Amino acid sequence: MQSSLNQIQPLTYKVDEQGEISVAGIKLKDLAKDYSTALYILCQETIEKRIQAYKSALEKHYPDFMIYYASKSLNCVAIAQLMQEQGLGLDVVSGGELYTALVAGFKAENIIFHGNNKSAEEIAYALENRVTLMLDNFYELSLIKNYLSANPASEAQVVLRLTPGIECHTHEYIKTGRIDSKFGFNLEQIEEVILKIQECPQIKLKGLHAHIGSQIFEIQPFVDSCAVLMEKFKLIKDKFGIELEELNLGGGLGILYEEQDDPPEIEKIIQAMAEAVEKNCTELGLKKPRLAIEPGRSLLGPAGMTLYKVGNIKDIPGVRKYVAVDGGMADNSRPIMYQAVYKAEIDGKVNQAKETVTVAGKYCESGDILIRDAELPAAEAGDLLVIFSTGAYNYSMASNYNRACRPAMVLVKDGKASIIIERESFADLVQRDKSL
Ligand code: LLP
Fold first, then answer.
1. How far is residue 367's CA from residue 404's CA, in Å, rounded to a whole number?
2. Which of 214, 248, 399 has the most ligand 1 atoms within 8 A of CB, as the residue to mutate?
3. 4, exposed or middle or buried, with CB in 10 Å at 0-12, 13-18, 19+?
4. Residue closest to 47 by CA, chosen among 293, 392, 385
5. C-alpha distance from residue 150 to each of 121, 163, 201 (Å)
6. Exposed, middle or buried by CB within 10 Å (0-12, 13-18, 19+), for 270?
7. What is the pLDDT of residues 265-309, one digit of tens each?
8. Residues in the ligand 1 pocket, defined by CB under 6 Å
9. pLDDT tens digit string along 2-34?
10. Average pLDDT, stretch 411-430?
């Protein structure tokens, strides 16, 4: 078990003798003063180190690789730019994510467009920009063909998304690789889809893809998924004479949210994937494809923290003590959606005696609880409470429920903080409303 609280915190997290917390050399209380709360904080060094862990592992075990950052975990202009600077590609899943990437100046040839129900407009948008499509279903193929016949000078690069029939242990809502999934082609449909692709010379099939789920702690499902896809590489070579270039094993590596979580190290999972590709290639007589992966959470999750201010404290003797903060399910919907568990600290009180409390949000819903039965020092109104591991799937799933203003986000590095997403204002909330 490699777990410990300091792997839940960003790499630059520090606590001084007064129990005050800083990140990247900046005190949380200063961030709260300068940017107010609730506030998303992202540690750039943590993101860069995690990217480096993937890159070093791939360079060592499988140098022909491509990392597509899964931007659904956190998509905004600055993060797309950071990913590009780091040499990564981008996985987008909607016209909106693609637009953000293009506004950020992301190179279109390094973007892949996912989705189980892309619209004709989204397909046109992607193809006009020469973005690779992750072909998910026959309906999408018909839309691509419509576009190409109306635009005879255009072409489409596609990768086929398959459901490999792999079970993994994660939350029901974030399992995607099993047969009963809304994503991708069933394995039996491959020959039919390739015949249909071959009818249109403007379509180039580059490879195969499978994503088995998210927040996964096991290595074997990735190895199994690789074996299923490589068998299909062989079938496609034998039946159609096509040697595919790219094998994409998706994202999904889990992170620590609490001490008992035990994700494998990045290098271990990469090594296992690399060995699986080599083994299958040798056994099946295939040339080694480029290995693509699509990590999201494992790059961003541990880099993020959300800083809140404590307000109302409701103590129901013998029942429960609620500590309410100035945020909740609108900025972090994961506890209410997936019963996700988080760890927290109180600035200025780290290492003080702890009590069991429930950290509640401020939204008008009893289920708006951020952490049930947290072990925390005695909080008072005005204290700063920080929740860890919120870098992925927090801002990207935030809502305006109760007409909440989405918090600002700051990126911190070497003692400097820069706003990468402005806090929403009341004016933003009514911007698109129309009077009667
Ligand atoms: N590739 C594909 C095709 C995906 O569908 C996903 C995530 C990823 C890559 C990135 O997976 P990651 O490395 O981040 O696990 N909202 C949920 C997670 C949904 C994941 C959806 N797909 C949550 O908050 O846990």
1. 16
2. 214
3. exposed
4. 392
5. 13, 31, 14
6. buried
7. 999 999 999 999 999 999 999 999 999 999 999 999 999 999 999
8. 70, 72-73, 91, 114, 174, 176, 211, 214-215, 250-253, 294-298, 334, 338, 392-393, 397
9. 445 567 999 999 999 999 999 999 999 999 999
10. 98
Name the residue with the closest Cα to ligand 1, atom 6.
251
Q: Are strands 384-388 and 304-316 parallel, antiparallel or unpaired?
A: antiparallel
CA distance 340 to 374: 13
Question: Is residue 82 classed exposed, middle or buried when 0-12, 13-18 and 19+ CB atoms within 10 A define those classes?
Answer: buried
**Sequential DSSP letters for 347-360:** TT-TTS-EEEEEEE
Q: Return the structure tokens found at 39.
A: 């506030």
Is the pLDDT at 429 greater than 50? The verdict is yes
Q: Is the pLDDT of residue 176 over 80?
A: no
Are 239 and 233 in contact by the 8 Å Cβ rule? The answer is no
Q: What integer pLDDT is reported at residue 88 of this predicted model?
A: 98
On whether the CB atoms of residues 106 and 80 are closer than 8 A, the answer is yes
Contact call for residues 325 and 309 (beta carbons, < 8 A):
yes
pLDDT digits (tens, 9 = 90+) for 223-254: 999 999 999 999 999 999 999 999 999 999 99
For ligand 1, atom 24: residue with the closest CA: 393
For residue 222, give both structure tokens: 């990735």
Cα–Cα distance for residue pair 316/122, rounded to 1 Å: 52
Expressed in angstroms and rounded, the spacing between residue 112 Cα and the centre of ligand 1 is 14
pLDDT for residue 194 is more than 70: yes
Q: Ligand 1, residues 93, 170, 294, 337: which to mutate, most atoms within 8 A of Cβ? A: 294
Q: What is the pTM of this model?
A: 0.96
Between 266-284 and 44-61, two packed helices, what is the crossing angle to 10 degrees?
30
Q: Which residues lie closer than 8 Å to 357 by C-beta, 6 or more apart? A: 320, 321, 322, 323, 373, 374, 376, 379
Catalytic residues: 364
What's the mean pLDDT in 47-54? 98
In whole angstroms, what is the distance from residue 108 CA to residue 106 CA?
6
- Ligand 1 test: best mutation among 176, 297, 393, 395, most atoms within 8 Å of CB? 297
Q: Tell me how far the alpha carbon of residue 211 lies from the centroid of ligand 1, in angstroms.
A: 8
The answer to whether 379 and 357 are in contact (CB under 8 A) is yes
On the question of pLDDT at 38 being above 60, the answer is yes
